[in-house]
Amino acid sequence: MAVTVELRYASLPSLLRFVAVHYWFVVTDESGCHRWEIWQTKNAGGRSVGHLHCDLKPPDAGVGGGPMRTAAVFTGEEAIALKRVLEDA
């Protein structure tokens, strides 16, 4: 199976939705589908290194301000390079 990396985002809750959105990566490969993101709290759940979390939330879940959207899709060498950076953290 080829590696695909999607850059996804969703609006933040409350008044924050007017000034910011939350982005995360979703890496899909032969091992499954994993969500990588920076979260405001260290070690909030899932696998984490400080503020960097893997699988804190499901890949398609928003963050309280609206639905998830896809900003970009990476395949081939770009996807492999992004996956490597995330997994080596």
Which structural class do the helices and strands define? mainly beta
Give helix % range.
10-25%
Shape: globular
Rg calc: 13 Å
Beta-strand percent range = 35-45%
Distance between the termini: 23 Å
Secondary structure: number of strands:
6
H-E order: EEEEEEH
| Uncertain stretches of 5 or more adjacent residues | none
Treating each run of at least 4 consecutive H or I residues as one helix, how many helices? Answer: 1
Biggest sheet architecture? 6 strands, antiparallel
Strand order of the largest sheet: 4-5-3-2-1-6
- Rounded average pLDDT: 92
Oligomer: single chain
Q: What does this 3D model show about the protein?
A:
This protein is mainly beta. A hairpin with a 2-residue loop joins strand 2 and strand 3. The protein is globular, with a radius of gyration of 13 Å.
Name the descriptors:
89 residues; globular; 1 helix; six-stranded antiparallel sheet; mainly beta
Layout of strands and helices, then pairs:
Blueprint lengths: L3 E8 L9 E9 L2 E7 L8 E3 L2 E3 L14 E7 H12 L2
Compact description:
This protein is about 15% helix and about 40% strand.
